[in-house]
Amino acid sequence: MKRDFFTTKVANAALFMFLAMFMLSGQGFAQQGWVWQNPLPQGNTLYGVDVIDANTIVAVGAAGTVMKTTNGGGNWTVKHYVNDIVNSFRAVSFFNFNTGIIVGDGGIILRTTDGGTNWTPQTSGTAGTLYGIYIMNDSTGVIVGSGGIILRTTSRGITWTLQTSGTVLTLYAVSFKDQNNGIAVGKSGVITSTTNGGVTWAFRYTPTAGDLFGVSYTNPRSAMVVGAFGQIWGSNQDGAPFTWFPKSSGTSSPLRSVFFVDASNGWAVSDAGVILRTTNAGSNWTPQSFGVPLLAVSFTDANTGITVGAGGTILRAINSGVNWLPLVVSAPNANALRGIVFIDGNTGTAVGDAGIIRRTTNGGGSWIFQTSGTKLRLNAVSFSNTNSGTAVGDSGAVLRTNNSGLSWSRQTSGTMNQLTGVSFTDGNTGTTVGWNGTILHTNDGGAMWTSQTSGTTNHLTGVSFTDSNTGTVVGLNGTILRTTNGGASWSSQSSEINDFYGVSFFNANIGAVVGNGIILHTTNGGVTWRRQISVTTLRSISCPDATTCIAVGDAGVILRTTDAGQTWRADTSGTTNALLGVFFTSANTGTVVGELGTILRTSGGLVAVRENPSSKMESPSQFVLEQNYPNPFNPVTIISFKILKSAFVTLKVYDVNGREITTLVNETKVAGNYKVNFDASRFSNGVYLYRLQAGSFVQLRKMLLLK
Question: 269 and 148 in one domain?
Fold first, then answer.
């Protein structure tokens, strides 16, 4: 479909989420079924959306997520890690119903010719983030991104040519009023424009030093840009000097995207979850609030529009954009779920921000809200049987139920310190811990809580008891405390300095502790600990049997051991949301909760997948870049790849900022299987990216150097 200024397609995003999920051993596991239970259909942040017509909509986002509906949002087809890409997709736009382009982190460009069923990598020539794309007509499009990059295609996305933008500042969005005239905006108020379809670009006067995130033409002579601090600027004469003038948005929150369907009617969306609507060319804006960050908005006509954002949020315009209808079940909000407990495979309770309590009796098939009676954040929950449970939270909050959560009553804790962990071994005996070394104990179901001497003023973050006498507490600054007499006395077990956030013991001897880049596992009650490095901060852990523990943390990381902590392997969670709580009732059945109301469930076990496959095929069936082996490595690792047919091949290594640090391959290769050694002796610890390009094939992977 031809695009003019009446059907502008702006898709951009301004958040960078970097997924670091690495194997801690040579062989990994592919998850057979982490399933979204909340929100539905999925909860990854969506950064870009294209409304192709009233029924056909495509949205993209974190964790390589692509969503498509062909019935106006009634049903969605959802894919994560498309083409095995774990990076975030930032924008999407279609030339027609079949041919479309996705752009994102690591210089990703994907192209489809079958409406999104399959996607093919295209050559971008950059490892930087690509933020925005605009399709002008059936063959021509423009992409913008970090470092002032502008790419142009006249072949419906088959090939892309680098343009001179006139700036090295990041460009976040681009819009065209016709085939020739366009504007790109970005960091520090940069504005650059073209009058020849993007063949050349010229830096233009900038009205602000604040970042600009969105741009949309309102008519052939006027445009609107939005950005940081709620800025809205209008222009005529295609953004020529001294023609930009400010508009009042009524908000100080960053505006991430803007879309006009004609000279008068437009919408802008913000980090604060506000949708602004104007019917008079931006002179006045009417706000509506939806509680979660909104990152992109797209319309195909005055009646058909979609905005997307954090936690998988999808809203559809009704009444010509006067009102908006959620298109997700159990729509996400800014409230995180922080604690989770199950008493069997079916019955569980989750707690979180703003006093949220949710309960399931069918293994998470449905989660009902319960009335907590508080707006305080709840950090942890423990049930000893179906009926009796305790939740703890900020300002010393302790809530108790004896009827499966039908009602919750506030107990007197005797403290105003934040309470962060709780563990009950039966209906009466329990311990809660919190800030400033707080440990409270009860023998009567919480009717009375007694303070115990912890011997520390460090904030305590987690507690696990296996019987009424034996328990372990963890906290900041490497704190690990142990009791064998019900808390009458506590002894220190740690010489670590890392902050700890989670602890779980299967029995008196076998358990694990997780925290800031570290995992400790013990088989002798903490007398000694096996120490492992994690590539990210881990927030919670559950050990359902003597050999199995599952840890979760930032960036959607799920790590698992099945050999009592000797090795840890990454599950494919399907999300980059921070995961804050985990509980397993058996080695294969468990639930994870996290930010933006995330609830994930698995009950199918795992299937082993080789991460260092041998290259025995004499004739590869496709281009492939393998995961390096070993990973993590010190200081040498092997990178394997397969070449389908003769092509000029480059294999380059980049740091986490996208700077090229070395080239491993730069020559023509015939079809075959190849291995290359990468020696990182001269580089520092950290995450590195390696990128294979063979003809039009491009693939990017990550690796971890630990010396």
Answer: yes
Tokens in use for 621?
Answer: 């069936």
Asked if residues 646 and 668 have their Cβ atoms less than 8 Å apart, the reply is yes
Query: 296-307: b or e for each residue (b if 16 or more CB lie within 10 Å)?
Result: bbbbbeeebbbb
Q: In angstroms, rounded to a whole number, what is the distance separating the alpha carbons of residues 213 and 186?
A: 6
Here the tokens at position 393 are 């939270």
Nearest to 3 by CA among 141, 209, 122: 141
The encoded tokens of residue 237 equal 């004469």
Residue with tokens 């200024």: 5
User: Environment class of residue 114 by beta-carbon count within 10 Å: exposed (0-12), middle (13-18) or buried (19+)?
Assistant: exposed
Grouping H, G, I as helix, E, B as strand and the rest as coil, residue 322 is coil
pLDDT of 244 above 80:
yes
Tokens 């209906």 locate to 427
- What is the side-by-side strand order in the sheet with 419-424? 419-424, 430-434, 439-442, 450-452
* Domain of 218, in residue numbers: 5-18+39-326
Has residue 620 got a pLDDT over 70? Answer: no
> Where would I find the beta strands (DSSP E) of 543-603?
549-553, 558-561, 569-571, 579-584, 590-594, 599-602
Does residue 332 belong to any structural domain of this protein?
no
Same domain, 631 and 680: yes
Radius of gyration of the chain (CA): 27
Q: Please, are residues 234 and 19 in contact by the beta-carbon 8 Å criterion?
A: no
Dihedral sign, CA of 612, 613, 614, 617?
negative
| Percent of the chain residues topping a pLDDT of 70 | 91
Residues 109-143 pLDDT 10s: 999 999 999 999 999 999 999 999 999 999 999 99
pTM: 0.79
Counted residue by residue, the chain has a size of: 707
Q: Could you tell me if 395 and 409 are in contact, meaning their C-beta atoms sit under 8 angstroms apart?
A: no
Task: Return the number of other C-beta atoms located less than 10 Å from residue 661's C-beta.
Answer: 13
Same domain, 399 and 518: yes
Return the SS3 of 294: strand
**CA neighbor of 266 nearest in space, from 229, 224, 329:** 224
- How many domains are there within the chain? 3
For residue 622, is pLDDT > 90? no
pLDDT tens string 166-205:
899 999 999 999 889 999 999 999 999 999 988 899 887 7
Return all residues near 578 (Cβ < 8 A) that are at least 6 apart.
Answer: 336, 539, 553, 554, 555, 556, 594, 595
Q: Which whole number is the average pLDDT over 548-576?
A: 93
Q: Give the span between the Cα atoms of 43 and 567, in whole angstroms.
A: 30
